[in-house]
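Support reply, case 0932

Customer input (verbatim):
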Amino acid sequence: MAALWLIAVVCWPLRTTAPVTSGGTAGAVTSAAAVGQNPPGVGPGAVWFRVAAAPYRGWAGMWQLITHGQVAAAAVAVAPIAVPAGIAIGGLGWAYRRFRMRTGAAGLTPAAPSAFDERQWRHQVRSARAAIAARGRLPLLSASGQVVVGATIRSVRHRTGRTAAIPYGRLRSHQVVIGSTGTGKTTLLLRLWAGFMAAGLRNHAAGTGRRPLLVVLDCKGGASSRKVADRTRRVLRDVGARSTAIWPDETPLSLWTLPPDRLVTTLLDLIEHGTGSAAFYSDVMEALVSLAVCAPCGPPANSADFLARLDPDWLATVYGASGDGAGVATARSSARAFNDVKLRFAALWRRLGAGLDGFASYADADAWYCVLEGTAEIAVAEAQARALTDLLAFYALSGEREILLCVDEFSAVSRRLPIWQLYERARSLGLAVQVSAQSWEGLAGSDDERHRVAATAEGGIWLLRTPRPDAVVALAGTQPSVDTTRRFDGAGAWSDDGLSRTRLAPVLDGDLVRRLDIGQVAYIYRGGVTFLQIKRLTGRQPVIGHGPDAATVPLPVVAAVPGMWTASGVGAAEPAAAGAMSGAANGPVSGLAAGPPWVPVPRPASGWPGNASPGMPVPGTLSGLGLGGMGQGGMGLGGMGLGGMTAADTALPDVSEVLDEAFGARRD
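Our regenerated output:
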């Protein structure tokens, strides 16, 4: 509105003030002004003079019209000058009042500045909640590609508008999330994960980036983690993720794909060793594990193969056949220690389960949600976290994906997972790390490690309500502030005498952080802070803020998997090679894909040992019974696949609204 009035101000001097006569010069002047040209005899200097004199002429014309009794015409005549001036004067006056309240120089009582600030906070919170409640107001991605997190409440030393958004590059940097239980931490993480996936897929489709990969380590475990995993799968599917694998419930990974030297280090890290005199036994274990992994016949294929190799006679035979006398001597001299080492690893794999004995890799899905039982079995969760991060660090060396690793409830595994090492070295690998904890103490085991983690969080720190925000307040920094002291004069009246001084005040108010409501978060980044209200993801929320016809991220084309019938979308099913999954008999037997569409993990050259491997959901495909082949143990079962179906035909309905209506909206 103000812009329209400013346009009117500029155009005001171009009008003619001479009366219009029939065929006279004034009519010619009016015609020239009407077509946007300078009147005859009027140069550019005269035009700019009229622009400068327009406020005075408008003000004088208003009084002339009022004198003649034309009040309405006077209001219209002065509006192009008065409205912008009034807005500017009102804004300056309000800014001056806020400055005086902030410095303590205004107000009738000493408590007036704090009461004024509390009123402003309540008003700002109401405005932010109204913004996130408006339908289609806050999409997941802005038109410029930034990730929209929520609505701004207030900011200190940050330039921001009504919408709180961060560039995609900050999600590609290390971040820290701190918040107590029930403050909206899961809602914030889901928003950041979905924004990372949507922006990464958009850049990949445009050819400006690699395909994104999200890996979540949920270290809490239990039924609540599996509910969050299901919700994460639905959210990522809505933004275009091809598949989300749930580890270890559905899709196990393979630890044995690591190179032999890395595999030896990882296996040793899975076992907790002592210190002092016990270091001798750790050296013995390292020697025996190296013999088993680096055998001339190649590395082990699974945990059973590794345990079977911990035999001194077998190792002596293998190394003797290759002519390695040193290996034979080590195996013979350490015969007594083999049983102890084998016993410890057998107990370890019995507790870990089959989650690391699969055939999948991180390249097989767009997102991996790994559930670690950190609440029930801390030692097992620590070993699993170490193995999963080692696998991810090795996969990051390939440089194929833009990876975001999120470790949720990190305090459960912080004792044996040196996350600060990933923070300091993983950035060069294209791996960004995001750690969330319920408190500052949950970031690491020692204060030095906590500061190392926070100091390398170049993407910012997300701070929700927490009872002890002092360490983060110190990291946020300080800013110059003016304090004013005044004296009372008489019965409660202020005098004109006072004193002002400049001091350094914290950028982040710790007391305000302690009072944050559910869904409110303080984002600390480069010496500034922005308080915002998180926008909860819904099934109807647009991905990109581009109006009603918003662009969507195209789904990738899924290639046919051997042994399965895949809907091609052209009206005919295409059979692939037989024998996708093998059963107990030698003849291949295919598995039935029930419920959501499933595509199995690609079969290795050696075939599937034992039972069929679980698959991963892929939107836009429909798998039926693969056509089995003839084997020595019998004939595999066959089936049919349906063709002529597209992604829209096979997409599952979003059930988030149904669950919210039945059980109430989820409050994370």
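We compared this against your earlier run and they match. Two observations from our side: DSSP finds 21 helices and 19 strands in the chain. The mean pLDDT is 77. Please reopen the case if you see a mismatch on your end.
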